Description:
Mean pLDDT: 82
InterPro entries: GAF-like_dom_sf, HTH_MetabolicPath_Reg, Tscrpt_reg_IclR_C, Tscrpt_reg_IclR_N, WH-like_DNA-bd_sf, WH_DNA-bd_sf
Number of helices: 9
Domain HTH iclR-type: 6-67
CATH superfamily of the largest domain: GAF domain
Keywords: DNA-binding, Transcription, Transcription regulation
Order of helices and strands: HHHEEHHEEEHHHEEEH
Pfam family, one: IclR_C
Domain IclR-ED: 68-251
Amino acid sequence: MRRRLLGSVLHAGQALDLFATEQHEWGTTEIAEALALPKSSAYALLASLAEIGLLERTPDRRFRLGHKLLGFGEAVLAGSEVFSATRDMLNELMQRLGRSVYLAVRDGHHVVYINRMQGPSSVPASLGSAGPTLPMHASAAGKILLAHVPEVQVRRILDARRLDRLTRTTITNEAALVAELKAVRQQGYALSNGEYVPELYCMAAPIHNCDADVVAAIGIGATAADFEMNREKMVREVMRAAQLASREQGWRPRQTA
Length: 257
């Protein structure tokens, strides 16, 4: 019984993860195929999630995330120290640079935005197609968070996810990605040069806690032309904001002899 219950919970989690992708509505057959479940089992799972409000049915008998999850999201953010501590700082960064800025954290094998602010010089809508989650290997925030986890965890994450080619500049070779992560650790920031969305350039820096662990990434998005013209200023301001946010979390730079 315990094993069956655990299996049901895991399948429920896997089903909800599917809705976090760019496809916001799913049919029973699609879920069954994605989770390798019998159609009857997939329907029972979806119906149960809809009954408790985590999913809701659409008029054409498909499923989408339920509004009940909004309450969970607000509760999570209310309890997030890094979200609360960086809210004003993120707004200040947006005002200083006039561009869109964001705060992201790692959730398992995903990178999730927990705060985004649109600056007056935001990227065009055609470039702003990035969803609520980011690919680890193709986003600046993902590279930051992946570069600062233990090697065994990096291996586990890479084994669980394919390095899908999202644009012509996406890194799809594992050795090349490992080399990129090493460079990220050395330089203290990460770039995504149109690797997730074509012509959308992002730069991110790490936020450390009191134990020097990286708990979040703060970053900025711009068009390719804008970034190349203002790269030095953007990198300097984002790294400054990341260091201030880290100090708010109790981090102190190591003293060198």
